[in-house]
Specification:
mainly alpha, globular
Length: 303
């Protein structure tokens, strides 16, 4: 199991390095569905691994100056206490069996929300980049802190959402925030968030150091490799594949029949292929279209 888990976490690390998200949304269901890890232990172990893995990406963005530190501060003001609340809320739900079932359902819902967030982010990417050289937006303390609180609660319950869920709401609150600042801010704010949630699980005795260590063994080099590959790999294709995996994992956690899962995956894959083909044709048409400067250089037609 250790070798297979290390290999799986290596693949997840590559996805995180390529897209900046998807760690908890992929690793936790992999632990539950394929390795038989109890949901509570899977959540806590994934959080502990993420607390070590995410600083690699955050450090790079901090050095490049692509972190909006004011937004990070207000997000953390809401997310850190809320993450602790989410962890301790699990203990108030009921017996161990009830808790495990509640986590499974909450994780499935969080995965669907994360997939929806990725879809909106893919279509809103051009809007985020449209900010160009516009000055960084001013922080809106109350809605930003509330966003952090909601994200922290979901992360404390499921380990999912520190990247995917928060980054899309940042797009809504701050539409002029440039894409690289969006990713950098999200990565840095996620570090204390997942650390707080992991600490809460450790205090309650849910943390499995052996699982967390095995995940780290594969995910850290995977993140480093994915970051190097990110400049060459088609990010849109990776995000589309990630959406399909998130939806499929969610449907399996909801214990839907395999026919439903496979049909949904096929529909999503076909839709993604159609959108990619349409965009490719549009890009080709723009490339082949004559430049206006060409007509200017030729000048007006003469008889």
């Amino acid at each position: 199991m250790d070798a297979l888990l290390t290999l799986a976490s290596f693949g997840v690390g590559i996805v995180v390095g390529l897209t900046g998200m998807g760690g908890g949304a992929l690793m936790t269901p992999i632990l539950v569905l394929f390795f038989g890890v109890p949901p509570m232990a899977a959540v806590s172990s994934d959080l502990a691994a993420s607390a070590v893995m995410k600083p690699f990406g955050g450090f790079v963005h901090a050095r490049r100056g692509t972190v909006h530190w004011s937004l990070v501060g207000w997000l953390c003001a809401g997310s850190i206490p809320s993450a602790f609340l989410g962890v301790f809320l699990l203990r108030l739900i009921g017996s161990d069996a009830v808790v495990q079932e509640a986590i499974r359902f909450a994780l499935a819902v969080a995965l669907l929300l994360a997939a929806a967030g990725l879809v909106v982010k893919m279509y809103g990417r051009s809007g985020a980049d449209a900010g160009g050289d516009a000055p960084p937006p001013r922080a809106r303390p109350l809605p930003t802190a509330l966003l952090g609180a909601v994200g922290g609660l979901v992360v404390g319950l499921t380990s999912v959402g520190s990247g995917s869920l928060i980054i899309i709401v940042l797009l809504v609150l701050y539409p002029t925030l440039r894409a690289n600042n969006l990713v950098g801010t999200d990565l840095v704010q996620a570090i204390p968030l997942v650390a707080a949630a992991a600490l809460g699980h450790a205090i309650l005795g849910d943390l499995r150091l052996d699982i967390a260590g095995t995940v780290l063994l594969g995910s850290v080099p995977g993140v480093l490799l994915g970051a190097r590959m990110s400049a060459r790999a088609p990010a849109a294709l990776v995000r589309a594949a990630l959406v399909i995996v998130l939806v499929a994992s969610s449907l399996k956690l909801l214990e839907l029949p395999n026919v439903v899962v496979l049909t949904t995956v096929a529909v999503l894959a076909a839709a993604g292929g159609a959108v990619a083909l349409k965009r490719r044709r549009a890009t080709t048409a723009d490339t082949l279209a004559p430049s206006p400067r060409l007509y200017e250089s030729i000048g007006p037609a003469r008889d």
